[in-house]
Design goal:
Rossmann fold; Helicase, Ruva Protein, domain 3; 5 domains; 3-stranded mixed beta sheet; 26 helices
Length: 602
């Protein structure tokens, strides 16, 4: 007996239970609800004015504070010093609610208690008074998982509960709730938490834990959380346990299988430079090192979104992109067009969707890289429609004047123009590279540039065809003017990539750099031919009298007693068949006649 007692005394005690970061730093007051200030203020005002509803519905994404807000509201209602917007957190009721053990506050999982019998038990229990608190509070999480029968069983109780009962529902899919439930609750929508606020909270947690972490590492965690505070805290807990010492960005990338910002930047620059080979080589190296393909696509979506924001004139204050790459982002955004960036975002989003459930994620990513690398020039739907209306076909296919299968046969636009030979760049017996850009050489030089661009850049060529005649505004300086009606062509040609192509073509012809400026002019378009003057309008009475003299209508009047009712304005009374004495098909289409008296000349 003594030996057994000694053995029991010497046995090690069980280790203290570890509480994860997400639970230890769970909000306990309305003021601690980060990113949900609008909800917290509304609930505080309701408590202060004694206008607390009998049923609340909290909806939003996962990990944004719905259940935490429900517990804080329960503590505020049942606190010994309450109801109060600032529960003490020290009384028995507050501590029991925080631990999820209060007998008057029941937290129900809607996914596992979704049957009609479960709701019937709830309806029977609501009639009993609370044990020690003021209210009996039911918190139903994931309420959208209840069955249709369970919702129907809850309706009457939810609409007219006893005065000592409060309902708080939480859901991530509010669209699945019946309208009859929604109409009986006060709804509060919880927003995604911004990466900046998540980053600041992670900094506070690391400091309170007495640990160290790089700011860049915490920013990566905040970006990965995608607006969920709980996800960010769970991820921080995992990374802190993954190694000793200071938490660095390298450890975050190693654990998550993500690429560093410099790697993403390198791949994006290869794609924007239309270098598919370099992009594929980078992917091959990273995939061999264990890079998570899905995470890389998420990072590329963020990068393209930042380019889109910059190109559209917005700022990057709320963007998760690291500050050290923002200057490079501005340079890359200036080299492309907004339509190309939108198309790129669409490709990345489609690739991400296709990766779900696919066993060939790497192949899908490689396809996206090649597709975007070949995406050199894009037209929006509006530009395509305007081009078609203006008679310009934006296509890179060979011209209809070219002879299939015979590369020596060129169409009219690529043939030598007015004595200028494109192949040798000769103008009036001299090489173009040896002359200056003057008023005399401007026309031939411009036509040669267009011929060169038609083959290499058909979209830019079709836009430039809509421009007015170019003008020289200085030494080796060319101004291209578009009428304001061609705003799509103007926007496309003034893009930096288009200007660079045009300047390269001029430099290739003249052997010297040429400054190109694209302008938009208003007023009448001098290049547009004037419309023919309108034809004079003949009065209706004169048209009818002229029509009555035609043999066809004379015979109709004699045989059938027909009268003329209406004659179109464009009818020509002189157009008739004099030999046969009958009206032409045009006459029959242009007049209406029938039996009856002529009442008017209209």
């Amino acid at each position: 007996m003594a030996k057994s007692k000694a053995a029991a005394a010497s046995s090690p005690s069980p280790p203290a239970e570890y509480t994860v970061v997400a639970r230890r730093y769970r909000p306990q007051q309305f003021a601690e609800l980060i990113g949900q200030e609008h909800v917290a203020q509304a609930l505080v005002n309701a408590l202060q004015s004694d206008r607390v509803a009998h049923a609340y519905l909290f909806t939003g994404a996962r990990g944004v504070g719905k259940t935490s807000a429900a517990r804080i509201l329960a503590k505020a209602l049942n606190c010994e010093k309450g109801p109060t917007p600032t529960p003490c957190g020290q009384c028995n009721s507050c501590q029991a609610i925080a631990e999820g053990q209060d007998v008057d506050v029941q937290e129900i999982d809607g996914a596992s208690n979704n049957k009609v019998d479960d709701i019937r038990d709830l309806r029977q229990n609501v009639g009993f008074r609370p044990t020690r608190g003021r209210y009996k509070i039911y918190i139903i999480d994931e309420v959208h998982m209840l069955s249709a029968g369970a919702f129907n069983a809850l309706l009457k109780t939810l609409e007219e509960p006893p005065p000592h009962v409060k309902f708080i529902f939480a859901t991530t899919e509010v669209q699945k709730l019946p309208i009859t439930i929604l109409s009986r609750c006060q709804r509060f929508d919880f927003a995604h938490v911004g990466p900046k606020k998540i980053f600041e909270q992670l900094q506070s947690i690391v400091a309170r834990e007495g640990l160290e972490a790089d700011d860049e590492a915490l920013r990566l965690i905040a970006r990965r959380a995608a607006g969920s505070m709980r996800d960010s805290q769970s991820l921080l807990d995992q990374l802190l346990a993954s190694g000793e010492g200071k938490l660095t960005a390298g450890r975050v990338h190693a654990v998550l299988g993500t690429a560093g910002d410099d790697r993403v930047l390198e791949l994006a620059q290869a794609i924007l430079a239309h270098d598919a080979q370099a992009g594929l080589n980078l992917l091959a190296v990273w995939i061999d090192r264990g890079l998570q393909v899905g995470e890389l696509v998420d990072q590329l979506i963020e990068y393209w979104r930042a380019l889109m924001l910059l190109k559209a004139g917005a700022g990057l204050e709320d963007s998760p992109v690291a500050p050290n790459v923002r200057e490079t982002l501005k340079e890359e955004a200036a080299k492309t067009t907004l339509d190309a960036l939108l198309a790129g975002l669409d490709v990345w989003a489609t690739t991400k969707a296709r990766m779900r459930g696919s066993s060939h994620a790497a192949v899908l990513l490689e396809m996206a890289v090649v597709r975007l690398s070949r995406l050199e020039e894009l037209l929006s739907v509006g530009q395509l429609v305007q081009s078609l209306k203006e008679g310009v076909v934006p296509s890179s296919r060979p011209s209809i004047n070219a002879v299939p299968g015979d590369p020596s046969k060129k169409n009219a636009l690529t043939a030598p123009i007015n004595g200028m030979e494109n192949a040798n760049h000769v103008f009036n017996g001299k090489e173009i590279a040896s002359i200056d850009l003057t008023e005399e050489s401007l026309t031939e030089v411009w036509q040669s540039v267009l011929a060169q661009l038609e083959e290499k850049s058909p979209f830019l060529y079709n836009h430039l065809r809509l421009a007015n005649s170019p003008a020289i505004f200085g030494p080796n300086s060319l101004a291209i003017r578009f009428h304001s009606s061609y705003n799509h062509a103007y926007d496309a040609c003034r893009a930096e990539s288009s200007l660079q192509k045009l300047q390269d073509a001029l430099k290739k012809l003249l052997g010297k750099p040429v400054v190109v400026r694209v302008d938009s002019v208003s007023g009448p378009n001098p290049e547009t031919p004037k419309a023919p003057p309108p034809k004079p309008v003949v009065p209706a009475g004169d048209r009818k009298r002229a029509l009555a003299g035609l043999p066809f209508f004379q015979k109709a009047a004699e045989s059938l007693g027909a009268q003329i009712w209406h004659v179109e304005e464009g009818f020509n009374a002189e157009t008739r068949n004099a030999e046969l004495g009958t009206g032409t098909s045009e006459e029959m289409r242009s007049a209406e006649f029938g039996m009856g008296n002529e009442d008017s000349d209209d």
